[in-house]
Amino acid sequence: MDVRTAEVPQDSVAGRSCTSGVADRVAVLTGGGDRPYVFGLCPALATDSMLVDVIGSDALEGPELRGTPGLRFLNLQGDWPPRGSGRGRLARVLRFYRELVRYVVTSAPRLLHILWNHHDKLELFDRTVLMLFYKLAGKIVVVTAHNVNTRKRDRTDSWLNRWTLRVQYHLADHIFVHSRQAAAELAEDFAIPSDRITTIPFGVNSSAPLTELTPVEAKARLGLADDERVILFFGRIQPYKGLEYLVAAVEQLVSKGDARYRLIVAGEPMKEHWASWRPIEDRLREGPLRERTILRASHIPDADTELYYKAADVAVLPYRAVYQSGILMLAYKFGLPVVATTVGSFSDVVVEGSTGFLCRPGDAEELVRALEKYFQSDLYRNLGEHRERIRRFSEARYSWRAIAQITQNVYRSLVSSSF
Predict the structure, then answer these.
(1) How many CB atoms within 10 Å of residue 48?
(2) Which CATH number goes with the domain that contains 313?
(3) Do 113 and 134 sit in the same domain of this protein?
(4) Facing residues of 316 across strands?
(5) Whole-structure pTM value
(6) Is 128 found in the same domain as 40?
(7) Distances in whole angstroms, Cα of residue 212 to Cα of each of 64, 141, 217, 218, 304
(8) Which residue, 334, 311, 318, is CA-closest to 393?
(9) 369 and 406 co-located in one domain
(10) Which of 63-77, 304-318, 341-355 has the lowest mean pLDDT?
(11) Cβ contacts of residue 206 below 8 Å, gap of 6+?
(12) For residue 323, what are the β-bridge partners?
């Protein structure tokens, strides 16, 4: 592709001086968090021919971004979202937006890639006023719509939410999504033309360490016997993830007399969904699974993630609705098969009988049948061999390098066509 570029002043990126055209200089606005996605995509984007500025917060500090040639990490947000008194928080938010505006006006990158909006409580501002500012500043804007409409998924949608999303999507020059369903929703609900949408996979998590820890050792650390059938639910606990269906399904499995089943629930319940979490917690602590459940109802650090995935025999994603899931890709990173519902991208990502099994959402009986099918399959009987195969499969099919190549091609096409 012949991309015309304009010369920009020399700049120091990750300790080296370089001169590049605006077509190959981009800024990625992270929203401050999502370490797995940022740590996977941004270093892969930074190459000899593409220089990347990453706008982030303290949560993204680390060698993954600070030590990558061709990548410059700009911590404009600091401790984000800010804590402290109301006046102090407001001052820090205003300071961040001032610094962001200054960066956009004075920086070399002509293309801005928004991975996430900056602040949940200011999302209406980010979607409308900030987007309009980017366009008036002459920037090409790319948006990754990880979740096309989160409130629709969570059944809390409103006309104002839909209107501000429509504004952001129509002001964007291009939108990345992670599934055919998401692309269809953009077209149907927001009237976005198909030639402005690119579907890319959700890459394999690169922030959680993978060590030599064996499944036998992991089970022993959690007080589990090697022959126990360990079912894992991992990640933030929210209503759309359907944990109650998994609890009901495991209760049914146990009621059939098989004493080998164990359940691990590891993840932080979201405060805004506390009312829906409490009955599930009571059921786990006081119901028939109270002696068969390991409950870690808190944030799980990256360093501890491996322990749970290595100790488990299967990861279950009983979601009622979803667009994509980093939790599924975490399972693949550790070679763990999954049982998931047929929502979002799961039908595209789960290879029936090879990397897991699928079932209908919102149906505990269906989930019981899928789990029984899994534990009777060769996938479980020869899990040690299949773990390594699933890891290789995910590395080949969902590599960040391949995702970055698609992303770079879109960047260059947009810049080329804008001249």
Answers:
(1) 10
(2) 3.40.50.2000
(3) yes
(4) 339
(5) 0.80
(6) yes
(7) 21, 42, 10, 11, 14
(8) 334
(9) no
(10) 63-77
(11) 36, 39, 40, 64, 400
(12) none
